[in-house]
Amino acid sequence: MPKPDTNPMTPKLAVLWLQSGGCGGCTLSLLGAESPDLTATLDGAGIRLLWHPSLSEASGEEVLDLLDGAISGTLAFDVLCVEGAMLRGPRGTGRFHVLAGSDRPLIDWVRQLAARARYTVAVGTCAAFGGVTAAGSNPTDACGLQYEGTRPGGLLGTDYRAGSGLPVINVAGCPTHPNWVTETLMALALDGLTADDLDPYRRPRMSADQLVHHGCTRNEFYEYKASARSHSDLGCMMEHLGCLGTQAHGDCNTRLWNGQGSCTRGGYACINCTAPEFEEPGHAFADTPSIAGIPIGLPTDMPKAWFVALASLSKAATPERLRRNAVTDHLVIPPAVRGTKPR
């Protein structure tokens, strides 16, 4: 059994990572961390992975001993990271997901480890709110750690608080950007994350206080309501193709993926994957529901009357360049070349 490490040079933050009902995409995304890479980032911040099901060598009895030690207190750890939804079925037993070799449902392990953790972090929208795993009829009775969709509760209950006094920290996304995870852990290593640093859904404000719309390369088309009609078109995808970037909380277009990409830059509409219940919007992801031509889901903070007035003015003033480029898959008319000096 590993013993508590009293070496003063021990890393500041010991992380235990479990995976439950999900695709493992958040771990795959995490491995794409760049400048520096994941290992260098964690080492440099004094963060040590005690165990991760995909990245660690330990398996079988070694892992069970490690988890038992964490629960009993003989193995010190700081952060419990959980990836994937909590599977409570069938009928509350949790036996749809039994931890290999233990004959115990993973939800039981999570409850006991969460009671010992200084911080508990839900990695990804499934762990935070239930996500895709909880969509549809949900025969697995999947939920998040402390939310079930938009409703507080989940597996651990509304009143749960980790040893630090914080609720579950929801690093939402499907998948998460690698830096959302590493920077959250780095903030915890510095004791630099408080309740005030979490938004109403307990997502770290460092990324959640921005919108996907910020930095979108299609913003000029949005301003003039020059809209794409097909997925290969260059125009704004809000009006016809289901893009929720003006409502989705995340810095995806200012903190690019793999240094250069995002959903909208790749030609895909934002589906608001950092939000609870994004998996069931009530319509096809690529459709924009509207009434009398007005989208039901309006940009954050914009009253309907303002949107109608601005959209009408914008469409009337749309330059021919944007009008034509919006419905093509390549640049047809480049911006005019003009002098900028006052005349």
Write the layout of secondary structure elements.
Blueprint: E1 13-19, H1 25-30, H2 38-45, E2 47-51, H3 61-72, E3 79-83, E4 86-87, E5 98-99, E6 104-105, H4 106-114, E7 119-123, H5 125-129, E8 142-143, E9 147-148, E10 151-152, E11 169-171, H6 178-189, H7 205-208, H8 219-223, E12 290-291, E13 294-295, H9 304-316, H10 320-325
Parallel strand pairs: 1-2, 1-3, 3-7, 7-11
Antiparallel strand pairs: 4-8, 5-6, 9-10, 12-13
Helix pairs in contact: 2-6
Descriptive keywords:
single chain; two-stranded antiparallel ribbon; five-stranded parallel sheet; disordered N terminus; 343 residues; 13 strands; 10 helices; alpha/beta
Structure report:
By secondary structure, the protein is of the alpha/beta class. Helix content is 23%, strand content 12%. It is built from ten helices and 13 strands. The chain has helices spanning 25-30, 38-45, 61-72, 106-114, 125-129, 178-189, 205-208, 219-223, 304-316, 320-325, and strands at residues 13-19, 47-51, 79-83, 86-87, 98-99, 104-105, 119-123, 142-143, 147-148, 151-152, 169-171, 290-291, 294-295. The chain has a five-stranded parallel beta sheet. Strand 9 and strand 10 form a beta hairpin. The chain is elongated and about 75 Å long. Mean pLDDT is 93; it is low at 1-10.
